[in-house]
Amino acid sequence: MVVFKLVAVFLMSVSVGVLYRIPRSLLLYAGGVGVAAWGVMYLAGLAGANPIMANFLASIVIGVSAELLARLLKKPAIIFIIPAFFPLVPGSEAYTTMLYMVKGHYVDGVSMAMRTVLTGAAIAFGIFSSSTAYRLVINYNKLGRVGKLPK
């Protein structure tokens, strides 16, 4: 069953890449980043992490992988970030939020809305912080070799 889910995540990431017109030569990389991120989210869930933390960890994988691939392939990191984060988007939680609101279960709806917003924020913060940390490390290494500070 897990293999089926991994294949589905790969196909989803590649499909989003096709939708956003990512070059064909990069689609497999984008799909691989999506699979790696979803795998980390799945393993974190199995280890007992709450879904928000699992999404945060997965988004860190997206940020670091995208920056590494961008550096290796000399392409923008966003090419790998967009398709990879689609499998993490809390779509079913947003649907459940709306369903609770429509049925009049406002307390449950607000609770689910908070969970949805926090999950989205965790994804955004994970990608932002990992990309920033990666760039800081790369720039620090460049400064160490060159020996002078940028102006």
UniProtKB/TrEMBL annotation:
Its main location: membrane. It is a multi-pass membrane protein. The keyword Transmembrane helix applies. GO terms for biological process: succinate transport. One of its GO terms (cellular component) is plasma membrane. The keyword Cell membrane applies. Keywords: Cell inner membrane, Cell membrane, Membrane, Transmembrane, Transmembrane helix. It is found in: Cell membrane. Residues 6-132 form the Threonine/Serine exporter ThrE domain. InterPro entries: ThrE_2, ThrE_Dicarb/AminoAcid_Exp. The chain crosses the membrane at residues 27-46, 52-70, 77-96, 116-138. Pfam families: ThrE_2. Belongs to the ThrE exporter (TC 2.A.79) family. This is Uncharacterized membrane protein YjjB, DUF3815 family.
